[in-house]
Amino acid sequence: MLFPAAIISAALLSIVSAAPQRRAPAQVITSCTVPNTAALTFDDGPWVYAYDVSKSLVAAGAKGTFFLNGDNFECIYSDTNVKRVKYLHDKGHQLASHTWGHRNLTLLNWNQIHDEMWRVEEALIRIAGVQPAFMRPPFGAYNDLVREASGVRGQKIAIWDLDTGDTVGATPAESKARYDQAISQKPATIHSLAHETKWESVSNILPYAIQKLQASGYRLVTLAECLGEQPYQWTQAPGVKDPATWKC
User: What region holds the NodB homology domain (predicted)?
Assistant: First the structure.
């Protein structure tokens, strides 16, 4: 028995929606690949200390990577956060996805994962005109479904090889010791995790890390630069804030 094409198409669409096709999983990045580079990355913003992080980096001739949320500590569409995101982009730092609401993606279904990813991507396109090429899952938690979703979205998953421990109880002295230990092993590259929402990380640990890393011969660059890749899948002109749609 033959069925009209419209019926077949509708049936196929329902199957794909209910059980997504297997796709090539996203590559998981932990370490840099360009020798003598260090990528300092900052999660959980945009937040009030974004300017301080940027100023410390720029003063040292360095750039950083900011993995931003849409609605974690504060809505990304607030006037102050729109200014912060634009400022970071204008200063040459890399903007990347930390998902919308900082949820554990491994506890979500296919559609929920995509919603968490897309909503922050949409915000970065609107505010800065960039579609990020890298995504960092909250808590560093990912599974096969998360990798497939990132792969569909054309992104790579960025983890790290040096955790400052600033959100799990490490003191500033302990975080500095982690940098010292890593540097003492003379790795070709370093990819560190810190959080722009922690004042001690921004005011105390970051200046120490910058001085130690540069003294040891590392160039402080964005994650994309330390991989020899592009930071964004594509770019366009930023949008103009629309209160009706730019909201959390």
Answer: 36-221
With bands split at pLDDT 50, 70 and 90, how would you rate the model's confidence at 74?
very high
Tell me, yes or no, if the pTM score tops 0.85.
yes
Going from the N-terminus, what domains does the chain have, and what CATH number goes with each?
Answer: 27-235 (3.20.20.370)
Dihedrals phi, psi of 42, to nearest 5 degrees: -135, 125
Instruction: Kindly state the tokens that stand for 199.
Output: 């004042």
The phi, psi pair for 18, rounded to 5°, reads -75, -35
| Burial tier of 79 (Cβ tally within 10 Å: 0-12, 13-18, 19+) | exposed
How does DSSP assign 167-193, residue by residue? TTT--HHHHHHHHHHHHHT--SEEEEE
> Quick one: which of 204, 191, 221, 186 has its CA closest to 60?
221
Report, in angstroms and rounded to the nearest whole number, the Rg of the chain calculated over CA atoms.
Answer: 19
**Span between the terminal Cα atoms of the chain, in Å:** 49
Please classify residue 114 by burial: count the beta carbons closer than 10 Å to its beta carbon, then call 0-12 exposed, 13-18 middle and 19+ buried.
Answer: middle
CA 28, 155, 201, 199 torsion-angle sign: negative
Pairing of strands 232-235, 130-132: antiparallel
Cα 151 from Cα 196, distance rounded (Å) = 27
pLDDT tens digits for range 122-178:
999 999 999 999 999 999 999 999 999 999 999 999 999 999 999 999 999 999 999
**Dihedral over alpha carbons 80, 197, 86, 104 (to 10 degrees):** -110
